[in-house]
Write a structure and sequence with these properties.
This protein has 487 residues and is of the alpha+beta class. It is built from 17 helices and ten strands. Bound molecules: fe (ii) ion (2 copies). One fe (ii) ion binds next to loops.
Protein backbone atom coordinates (compact mmCIF):
# COMPACT_ATOMS: atom_id res chain seq x y z
CA UNK A 1 0.00 0.00 0.00
CA UNK A 2 1.56 3.29 -1.06
CA UNK A 3 1.56 6.07 1.44
CA UNK A 4 2.83 9.60 1.48
CA UNK A 5 4.50 11.44 4.33
CA UNK A 6 2.45 14.13 5.97
CA UNK A 7 3.60 16.33 8.79
CA UNK A 8 1.67 19.03 10.57
CA UNK A 9 0.28 19.91 13.97
CA UNK A 10 -3.32 19.50 12.85
CA UNK A 11 -2.63 16.01 11.51
CA UNK A 12 -0.79 15.01 14.66
CA UNK A 13 -3.79 16.03 16.76
CA UNK A 14 -6.27 14.39 14.41
CA UNK A 15 -4.13 11.26 14.31
CA UNK A 16 -4.28 10.97 18.09
CA UNK A 17 -8.03 11.41 18.12
CA UNK A 18 -8.37 8.82 15.33
CA UNK A 19 -6.63 6.23 17.51
CA UNK A 20 -8.69 7.23 20.50
CA UNK A 21 -11.99 7.03 18.61
CA UNK A 22 -11.08 3.71 17.06
CA UNK A 23 -10.35 2.35 20.54
CA UNK A 24 -13.73 3.58 21.82
CA UNK A 25 -15.51 2.06 18.83
CA UNK A 26 -13.73 -1.31 19.06
CA UNK A 27 -14.46 -1.47 22.79
CA UNK A 28 -18.13 -0.64 22.17
CA UNK A 29 -18.35 -3.32 19.49
CA UNK A 30 -16.99 -5.90 21.92
CA UNK A 31 -20.17 -5.41 23.97
CA UNK A 32 -22.76 -4.43 21.35
CA UNK A 33 -23.53 -5.74 17.88
CA UNK A 34 -23.21 -3.39 14.87
CA UNK A 35 -26.91 -2.47 14.79
CA UNK A 36 -27.04 -1.36 18.43
CA UNK A 37 -27.74 2.36 19.04
CA UNK A 38 -24.63 2.57 21.21
CA UNK A 39 -22.58 2.20 18.00
CA UNK A 40 -24.04 5.25 16.25
CA UNK A 41 -22.25 8.09 18.00
CA UNK A 42 -18.73 6.60 18.10
CA UNK A 43 -19.07 5.59 14.43
CA UNK A 44 -20.06 9.10 13.40
CA UNK A 45 -17.18 10.60 15.35
CA UNK A 46 -14.70 8.27 13.72
CA UNK A 47 -16.03 8.98 10.23
CA UNK A 48 -15.76 12.70 10.88
CA UNK A 49 -12.13 12.40 11.95
CA UNK A 50 -11.31 10.20 8.95
CA UNK A 51 -12.87 12.76 6.60
CA UNK A 52 -11.04 15.62 8.30
CA UNK A 53 -7.76 13.77 7.97
CA UNK A 54 -8.45 13.01 4.32
CA UNK A 55 -8.93 16.67 3.55
CA UNK A 56 -6.74 18.31 6.19
CA UNK A 57 -5.72 21.88 5.34
CA UNK A 58 -7.75 21.79 2.18
CA UNK A 59 -5.46 19.32 0.45
CA UNK A 60 -5.79 15.59 0.49
CA UNK A 61 -3.50 14.00 3.04
CA UNK A 62 -2.81 11.01 0.86
CA UNK A 63 -3.24 12.33 -2.60
CA UNK A 64 -5.36 9.25 -3.25
CA UNK A 65 -8.16 9.93 -0.79
CA UNK A 66 -7.11 7.04 1.39
CA UNK A 67 -6.09 6.85 5.00
CA UNK A 68 -3.82 4.10 6.29
CA UNK A 69 -3.02 3.26 9.87
CA UNK A 70 0.00 0.98 10.09
CA UNK A 71 1.53 -0.98 12.93
CA UNK A 72 5.30 -1.31 12.78
CA UNK A 73 6.88 -2.92 15.82
CA UNK A 74 5.34 -1.08 18.75
CA UNK A 75 4.51 2.09 16.85
CA UNK A 76 1.54 3.35 14.91
CA UNK A 77 1.97 5.28 11.68
CA UNK A 78 -0.69 7.27 9.91
CA UNK A 79 0.15 7.58 6.22
CA UNK A 80 3.82 7.13 7.14
CA UNK A 81 3.66 9.74 9.88
CA UNK A 82 4.72 8.25 13.19
CA UNK A 83 2.03 8.95 15.77
CA UNK A 84 3.40 10.19 19.07
CA UNK A 85 1.95 8.67 22.18
CA UNK A 86 1.35 10.91 25.17
CA UNK A 87 0.07 10.39 28.68
CA UNK A 88 -3.58 11.07 27.80
CA UNK A 89 -3.52 8.81 24.79
CA UNK A 90 -1.48 5.84 25.98
CA UNK A 91 -4.42 3.64 26.98
CA UNK A 92 -5.97 3.89 23.49
CA UNK A 93 -2.62 3.45 21.75
CA UNK A 94 -1.81 0.33 23.73
CA UNK A 95 -5.29 -1.04 23.16
CA UNK A 96 -5.15 -0.60 19.37
CA UNK A 97 -1.63 -2.04 19.15
CA UNK A 98 -2.67 -5.07 21.23
CA UNK A 99 -5.88 -5.69 19.26
CA UNK A 100 -4.05 -5.38 15.91
CA UNK A 101 -1.39 -7.82 17.08
CA UNK A 102 -3.97 -10.36 18.27
CA UNK A 103 -5.45 -10.41 14.77
CA UNK A 104 -2.16 -10.16 12.86
CA UNK A 105 -3.19 -6.81 11.37
CA UNK A 106 -0.31 -4.64 10.16
CA UNK A 107 -2.35 -2.02 8.34
CA UNK A 108 -5.89 -0.74 8.16
CA UNK A 109 -6.84 1.49 5.23
CA UNK A 110 -10.02 3.47 4.80
CA UNK A 111 -11.18 4.43 1.30
CA UNK A 112 -12.53 7.80 0.28
CA UNK A 113 -16.18 6.70 0.27
CA UNK A 114 -16.15 5.17 3.72
CA UNK A 115 -19.54 5.40 5.43
CA UNK A 116 -21.07 4.42 8.77
CA UNK A 117 -22.50 1.10 7.59
CA UNK A 118 -19.14 -0.23 6.43
CA UNK A 119 -17.43 0.93 9.61
CA UNK A 120 -20.02 -0.76 11.81
CA UNK A 121 -19.89 -4.01 9.85
CA UNK A 122 -16.11 -4.00 9.99
CA UNK A 123 -16.25 -3.50 13.77
CA UNK A 124 -18.62 -6.45 14.02
CA UNK A 125 -16.18 -8.70 12.14
CA UNK A 126 -13.21 -7.29 14.08
CA UNK A 127 -14.89 -8.05 17.40
CA UNK A 128 -16.18 -11.51 16.58
CA UNK A 129 -13.39 -13.07 14.52
CA UNK A 130 -12.14 -16.18 16.30
CA UNK A 131 -8.75 -15.36 17.80
CA UNK A 132 -8.00 -18.94 18.75
CA UNK A 133 -7.64 -20.15 15.18
CA UNK A 134 -4.24 -20.40 13.53
CA UNK A 135 -4.64 -17.41 11.20
CA UNK A 136 -7.16 -14.84 12.47
CA UNK A 137 -5.91 -12.34 9.88
CA UNK A 138 -6.87 -14.56 6.98
CA UNK A 139 -10.27 -15.26 8.53
CA UNK A 140 -10.95 -11.56 8.99
CA UNK A 141 -9.80 -10.77 5.45
CA UNK A 142 -12.15 -13.43 4.07
CA UNK A 143 -15.05 -11.95 6.05
CA UNK A 144 -14.32 -8.52 4.58
CA UNK A 145 -14.06 -9.90 1.06
CA UNK A 146 -17.29 -11.85 1.39
CA UNK A 147 -19.03 -8.72 2.58
CA UNK A 148 -17.54 -6.92 -0.46
CA UNK A 149 -16.03 -4.17 1.57
CA UNK A 150 -14.14 -1.79 -0.65
CA UNK A 151 -13.51 1.04 1.74
CA UNK A 152 -11.95 -0.99 4.53
CA UNK A 153 -8.82 -2.93 3.61
CA UNK A 154 -6.53 -4.73 6.03
CA UNK A 155 -2.93 -5.81 5.48
CA UNK A 156 -0.93 -8.44 7.40
CA UNK A 157 1.61 -7.64 10.05
CA UNK A 158 5.18 -7.47 8.72
CA UNK A 159 7.41 -9.42 11.04
CA UNK A 160 10.52 -7.75 9.75
CA UNK A 161 10.30 -4.20 8.66
CA UNK A 162 12.83 -1.55 8.05
CA UNK A 163 12.97 0.54 11.13
CA UNK A 164 11.61 3.94 10.22
CA UNK A 165 13.25 5.57 13.19
CA UNK A 166 14.99 8.88 12.84
CA UNK A 167 18.69 9.22 12.12
CA UNK A 168 18.98 10.74 15.55
CA UNK A 169 19.98 8.06 18.11
CA UNK A 170 18.84 10.33 20.96
CA UNK A 171 15.35 10.50 19.45
CA UNK A 172 15.24 6.70 19.12
CA UNK A 173 16.29 6.02 22.70
CA UNK A 174 13.74 8.61 23.82
CA UNK A 175 11.01 6.72 21.95
CA UNK A 176 12.11 3.42 23.46
CA UNK A 177 12.07 4.85 26.99
CA UNK A 178 8.64 6.38 26.41
CA UNK A 179 7.27 3.14 25.07
CA UNK A 180 8.61 1.20 28.05
CA UNK A 181 7.15 3.79 30.41
CA UNK A 182 3.66 3.47 28.95
CA UNK A 183 3.86 -0.33 28.80
CA UNK A 184 4.73 -0.38 32.49
CA UNK A 185 1.68 1.75 33.29
CA UNK A 186 -0.48 -0.77 31.42
CA UNK A 187 1.13 -3.73 33.20
CA UNK A 188 0.66 -2.26 36.68
CA UNK A 189 -2.92 -1.26 35.90
CA UNK A 190 -3.74 -4.80 34.76
CA UNK A 191 -2.42 -6.37 37.97
CA UNK A 192 -4.18 -3.80 40.14
CA UNK A 193 -7.47 -4.31 38.29
CA UNK A 194 -7.26 -8.07 38.86
CA UNK A 195 -6.57 -7.54 42.55
CA UNK A 196 -9.56 -5.19 42.73
CA UNK A 197 -11.81 -7.80 41.12
CA UNK A 198 -10.37 -10.43 43.50
CA UNK A 199 -9.02 -12.37 40.52
CA UNK A 200 -5.74 -14.24 40.54
CA UNK A 201 -3.32 -11.86 38.89
CA UNK A 202 0.09 -12.69 37.54
CA UNK A 203 3.34 -10.79 37.84
CA UNK A 204 4.72 -12.35 34.65
CA UNK A 205 4.10 -9.49 32.19
CA UNK A 206 5.14 -6.83 34.70
CA UNK A 207 8.33 -8.72 35.43
CA UNK A 208 9.31 -8.76 31.75
CA UNK A 209 8.70 -5.04 31.43
CA UNK A 210 10.59 -4.20 34.62
CA UNK A 211 13.52 -6.10 33.11
CA UNK A 212 13.50 -3.80 30.08
CA UNK A 213 13.41 -0.84 32.46
CA UNK A 214 16.45 -2.26 34.22
CA UNK A 215 18.22 -2.46 30.84
CA UNK A 216 17.43 1.19 30.14
CA UNK A 217 18.66 2.28 33.58
CA UNK A 218 21.87 0.30 33.15
CA UNK A 219 22.54 2.17 29.89
CA UNK A 220 22.78 5.28 32.10
CA UNK A 221 20.12 6.86 29.95
CA UNK A 222 18.58 9.86 31.64
CA UNK A 223 15.47 9.76 29.42
CA UNK A 224 13.66 7.37 31.70
CA UNK A 225 14.27 9.61 34.72
CA UNK A 226 12.96 12.55 32.68
CA UNK A 227 9.70 10.70 32.19
CA UNK A 228 9.04 10.70 35.94
CA UNK A 229 7.93 14.28 35.31
CA UNK A 230 4.86 12.99 33.50
CA UNK A 231 1.80 13.63 35.57
CA UNK A 232 -1.39 11.79 34.90
CA UNK A 233 -4.12 12.84 37.29
CA UNK A 234 -6.75 10.33 36.18
CA UNK A 235 -4.40 7.40 36.52
CA UNK A 236 -2.45 8.80 39.45
CA UNK A 237 -1.75 5.53 41.23
CA UNK A 238 -0.40 3.77 38.11
CA UNK A 239 1.60 6.82 37.06
CA UNK A 240 3.00 7.16 40.60
CA UNK A 241 3.86 3.44 40.76
CA UNK A 242 5.89 3.63 37.54
CA UNK A 243 7.69 6.79 38.73
CA UNK A 244 8.55 5.13 42.03
CA UNK A 245 9.87 2.13 40.09
CA UNK A 246 12.16 4.32 37.92
CA UNK A 247 13.44 6.34 40.89
CA UNK A 248 14.08 3.16 42.88
CA UNK A 249 16.04 1.68 39.96
CA UNK A 250 18.14 4.83 39.67
CA UNK A 251 18.94 4.46 43.34
CA UNK A 252 19.61 0.73 43.07
CA UNK A 253 22.07 1.43 40.29
CA UNK A 254 23.96 3.86 42.55
CA UNK A 255 24.03 1.13 45.19
CA UNK A 256 25.74 -1.13 42.66
CA UNK A 257 22.90 -3.64 42.44
CA UNK A 258 23.18 -6.32 39.78
CA UNK A 259 20.47 -7.00 37.21
CA UNK A 260 18.67 -9.56 39.39
CA UNK A 261 18.52 -7.35 42.47
CA UNK A 262 17.52 -4.35 40.38
CA UNK A 263 14.64 -6.28 38.92
CA UNK A 264 13.51 -7.38 42.41
CA UNK A 265 13.74 -3.77 43.63
CA UNK A 266 11.86 -2.55 40.54
CA UNK A 267 9.01 -5.03 41.05
CA UNK A 268 8.71 -4.19 44.75
CA UNK A 269 8.61 -0.49 43.83
CA UNK A 270 6.06 -0.99 41.08
CA UNK A 271 3.62 -2.75 43.38
CA UNK A 272 4.24 -0.89 46.65
CA UNK A 273 0.75 0.63 46.47
CA UNK A 274 -0.98 -2.51 45.19
CA UNK A 275 -3.45 -2.34 48.10
CA UNK A 276 -4.73 1.03 46.90
CA UNK A 277 -6.83 -0.92 44.41
CA UNK A 278 -9.05 -1.86 47.36
CA UNK A 279 -9.61 1.74 48.48
CA UNK A 280 -12.94 3.14 47.24
CA UNK A 281 -12.36 5.61 44.37
CA UNK A 282 -14.33 8.36 46.11
CA UNK A 283 -11.73 8.28 48.88
CA UNK A 284 -8.70 7.74 46.63
CA UNK A 285 -9.58 10.61 44.29
CA UNK A 286 -11.08 12.95 46.87
CA UNK A 287 -10.11 16.50 45.89
CA UNK A 288 -10.28 17.90 49.42
CA UNK A 289 -8.71 17.00 52.76
CA UNK A 290 -9.43 13.50 54.15
CA UNK A 291 -11.61 13.10 57.22
CA UNK A 292 -10.21 11.01 60.08
CA UNK A 293 -12.35 8.06 58.90
CA UNK A 294 -10.99 8.36 55.37
CA UNK A 295 -7.45 8.51 56.68
CA UNK A 296 -8.01 5.31 58.60
CA UNK A 297 -9.13 3.63 55.35
CA UNK A 298 -6.12 5.03 53.47
CA UNK A 299 -3.76 3.81 56.18
CA UNK A 300 -4.94 0.27 55.56
CA UNK A 301 -3.54 0.08 52.01
CA UNK A 302 -0.23 -1.54 53.09
CA UNK A 303 -2.22 -4.38 54.68
CA UNK A 304 -4.51 -4.64 51.63
CA UNK A 305 -1.36 -4.98 49.53
CA UNK A 306 -0.21 -7.96 51.56
CA UNK A 307 -3.57 -9.67 51.04
CA UNK A 308 -3.42 -8.84 47.32
CA UNK A 309 0.01 -10.45 46.88
CA UNK A 310 -1.14 -13.58 48.69
CA UNK A 311 -3.86 -13.99 46.06
CA UNK A 312 -1.32 -13.77 43.22
CA UNK A 313 -0.39 -16.95 41.42
CA UNK A 314 2.42 -18.81 43.16
CA UNK A 315 4.28 -17.33 46.11
CA UNK A 316 8.01 -17.02 45.52
CA UNK A 317 10.97 -14.88 46.60
CA UNK A 318 9.75 -12.04 44.46
CA UNK A 319 6.31 -11.94 45.99
CA UNK A 320 7.90 -11.95 49.43
CA UNK A 321 9.94 -8.81 48.58
CA UNK A 322 6.84 -7.16 47.14
CA UNK A 323 4.88 -8.01 50.30
CA UNK A 324 7.55 -6.69 52.65
CA UNK A 325 7.93 -3.42 50.77
CA UNK A 326 4.17 -2.90 50.42
CA UNK A 327 3.80 -3.46 54.13
CA UNK A 328 6.72 -1.22 55.18
CA UNK A 329 6.73 1.73 52.80
CA UNK A 330 4.86 4.08 55.16
CA UNK A 331 6.98 3.14 58.14
CA UNK A 332 9.60 5.71 59.00
CA UNK A 333 13.26 5.01 59.76
CA UNK A 334 12.51 5.65 63.46
CA UNK A 335 9.58 3.18 63.19
CA UNK A 336 6.90 5.86 63.48
CA UNK A 337 4.32 5.87 60.67
CA UNK A 338 1.97 3.01 59.81
CA UNK A 339 1.00 0.19 60.11
CA UNK A 340 1.71 -0.09 63.84
CA UNK A 341 4.06 -2.97 64.48
CA UNK A 342 3.64 -5.37 67.37
CA UNK A 343 7.39 -5.96 67.57
CA UNK A 344 9.90 -3.21 66.82
CA UNK A 345 12.12 -4.49 64.05
CA UNK A 346 14.16 -2.18 61.82
CA UNK A 347 12.66 -1.48 58.40
CA UNK A 348 14.19 -3.65 55.66
CA UNK A 349 16.66 -2.15 53.17
CA UNK A 350 14.15 -2.38 50.30
CA UNK A 351 11.50 -0.77 52.50
CA UNK A 352 13.83 2.11 53.41
CA UNK A 353 14.67 2.71 49.74
CA UNK A 354 11.05 2.72 48.61
CA UNK A 355 9.90 4.99 51.44
CA UNK A 356 12.37 7.62 50.16
CA UNK A 357 11.47 7.45 46.48
CA UNK A 358 7.76 7.12 47.28
CA UNK A 359 7.82 10.29 49.37
CA UNK A 360 9.79 12.19 46.71
CA UNK A 361 7.35 11.34 43.92
CA UNK A 362 4.32 12.11 46.12
CA UNK A 363 5.76 15.50 47.10
CA UNK A 364 6.63 16.53 43.54
CA UNK A 365 3.33 15.49 41.94
CA UNK A 366 -0.01 17.18 42.23
CA UNK A 367 -2.21 14.24 43.02
CA UNK A 368 -5.69 15.30 43.98
CA UNK A 369 -5.18 15.44 47.72
CA UNK A 370 -1.78 17.07 47.54
CA UNK A 371 -2.76 20.38 46.01
CA UNK A 372 0.53 22.19 45.58
CA UNK A 373 3.38 20.05 44.27
CA UNK A 374 6.87 20.83 45.54
CA UNK A 375 9.50 21.73 42.96
CA UNK A 376 12.16 18.95 42.95
CA UNK A 377 14.88 20.88 44.82
CA UNK A 378 12.46 21.92 47.57
CA UNK A 379 11.24 18.34 47.95
CA UNK A 380 14.85 17.22 48.39
CA UNK A 381 15.57 19.90 51.01
CA UNK A 382 12.38 18.98 52.88
CA UNK A 383 13.38 15.32 52.89
CA UNK A 384 17.01 15.97 53.87
CA UNK A 385 15.66 17.71 56.98
CA UNK A 386 14.11 14.40 57.96
CA UNK A 387 17.31 12.38 57.58
CA UNK A 388 17.66 10.14 60.62
CA UNK A 389 13.99 10.41 61.64
CA UNK A 390 11.77 9.63 58.64
CA UNK A 391 14.54 8.48 56.34
CA UNK A 392 17.72 6.45 56.51
CA UNK A 393 20.43 9.17 56.68
CA UNK A 394 22.83 7.36 54.36
CA UNK A 395 20.25 6.27 51.82
CA UNK A 396 18.79 9.76 51.52
CA UNK A 397 22.26 11.06 50.57
CA UNK A 398 22.60 8.30 47.99
CA UNK A 399 19.21 9.29 46.62
CA UNK A 400 20.26 12.94 46.19
CA UNK A 401 23.41 11.63 44.56
CA UNK A 402 21.37 9.50 42.16
CA UNK A 403 18.90 12.13 41.01
CA UNK A 404 21.16 15.17 41.38
CA UNK A 405 20.97 18.41 43.33
CA UNK A 406 18.90 19.73 40.45
CA UNK A 407 16.85 16.69 39.47
CA UNK A 408 15.72 16.23 35.87
CA UNK A 409 12.67 18.41 35.27
CA UNK A 410 13.76 21.26 37.58
CA UNK A 411 13.17 24.71 36.02
CA UNK A 412 16.16 26.99 36.42
CA UNK A 413 16.85 30.68 35.87
CA UNK A 414 20.31 31.29 34.40
CA UNK A 415 22.74 34.20 34.69
CA UNK A 416 22.09 34.86 31.00
CA UNK A 417 18.44 35.62 31.93
CA UNK A 418 17.41 32.50 30.03
CA UNK A 419 15.16 29.86 31.60
CA UNK A 420 15.85 26.17 31.18
CA UNK A 421 14.65 22.75 32.27
CA UNK A 422 17.22 20.29 33.65
CA UNK A 423 17.52 17.53 31.08
CA UNK A 424 20.36 15.35 32.31
CA UNK A 425 22.30 15.25 35.55
CA UNK A 426 26.10 15.42 35.44
CA UNK A 427 27.89 12.07 35.90
CA UNK A 428 29.78 13.32 38.94
CA UNK A 429 28.13 14.80 42.01
CA UNK A 430 31.08 17.23 42.26
CA UNK A 431 29.63 19.00 39.21
CA UNK A 432 26.11 18.60 40.58
CA UNK A 433 25.27 22.27 40.07
CA UNK A 434 26.16 22.08 36.37
CA UNK A 435 23.61 19.78 34.72
CA UNK A 436 22.55 19.75 31.06
CA UNK A 437 19.66 22.14 30.52
CA UNK A 438 17.16 22.58 27.72
CA UNK A 439 16.53 26.26 27.04
CA UNK A 440 12.80 27.02 27.07
CA UNK A 441 12.67 30.82 27.48
CA UNK A 442 15.18 33.18 25.85
CA UNK A 443 16.79 36.23 27.45
CA UNK A 444 14.00 38.37 26.02
CA UNK A 445 11.36 36.34 27.85
CA UNK A 446 10.04 34.53 24.76
CA UNK A 447 9.14 30.87 24.96
CA UNK A 448 11.46 28.85 22.71
CA UNK A 449 12.12 25.26 21.78
CA UNK A 450 15.79 25.80 22.49
CA UNK A 451 18.88 23.62 22.42
CA UNK A 452 20.18 21.46 25.25
CA UNK A 453 23.21 23.20 26.74
CA UNK A 454 25.83 21.75 29.06
CA UNK A 455 26.33 24.06 32.04
CA UNK A 456 29.70 22.44 32.58
CA UNK A 457 30.96 24.04 29.37
CA UNK A 458 33.57 26.75 29.77
CA UNK A 459 34.25 29.82 27.67
CA UNK A 460 37.42 28.86 25.70
CA UNK A 461 38.94 32.33 26.25
CA UNK A 462 38.12 33.13 29.86
CA UNK A 463 37.74 29.53 31.10
CA UNK A 464 34.66 30.74 33.02
CA UNK A 465 31.39 28.80 32.70
CA UNK A 466 29.22 30.01 29.82
CA UNK A 467 26.03 29.69 31.85
CA UNK A 468 25.32 29.32 35.57
CA UNK A 469 22.17 28.58 37.55
CA UNK A 470 21.05 31.61 39.56
CA UNK A 471 17.94 30.10 41.12
CA UNK A 472 15.29 27.45 40.63
CA UNK A 473 11.78 28.32 39.49
CA UNK A 474 8.59 26.73 40.77
CA UNK A 475 7.06 25.54 37.48
CA UNK A 476 3.64 24.90 39.00
CA UNK A 477 3.44 28.50 40.26
CA UNK A 478 3.80 29.69 36.68
CA UNK A 479 1.43 26.94 35.47
CA UNK A 480 4.18 25.41 33.30
CA UNK A 481 3.90 21.71 32.59
CA UNK A 482 7.53 20.61 32.32
CA UNK A 483 6.55 17.09 31.21
CA UNK A 484 5.98 18.32 27.65
CA UNK A 485 9.74 18.70 27.23
CA UNK A 486 10.23 14.98 27.86
CA UNK A 487 7.67 13.63 25.39
FE1 LIG B 1 1.52 4.00 49.82
FE1 LIG C 1 3.12 5.34 47.05
Amino acid sequence: MRTKKVVGDAQVKLGKSLVNQMAILFKTSQIHDPTNVAMIQPTERLIQTIKELMSADGESVTGEGELTLELKGDYLFLNSMKLKMDIEGFVSFMFIIDEFKKRGIGSLAFGQDIGPEEIKRFCGFFATVDLKQSNPFQALEQLLQRAQMVNVVIGPIEETFEREGSDDPFQDSKELAKNTYFKTITAVSEVMQSVKLKQAASFKKAKRIVQSMVDLILQEDSTLLGLTNLRCHDEYTYNHSVNVCILALAMGQRLGYNRKRLSELGMAALFHDLGKSEIPLEVLNKPSEFTEDEWSIMRRHPIFSVKGVVRLKGVNDLSISVTIVACEHHLNYDLSGYPRLASKRPVSLLGRIISIVDCYDALTSSRVYNRVPFPPDRALRFMLNKAGTAFDPILIKIFVNAIGVYPIGTMVFLNTKEIGVVFATPPSIANGDRPKVKLVVDAGGHEIDGEVVDLGKLDPKTQAPLRTIVKTIDASKYKIDVSKYFL
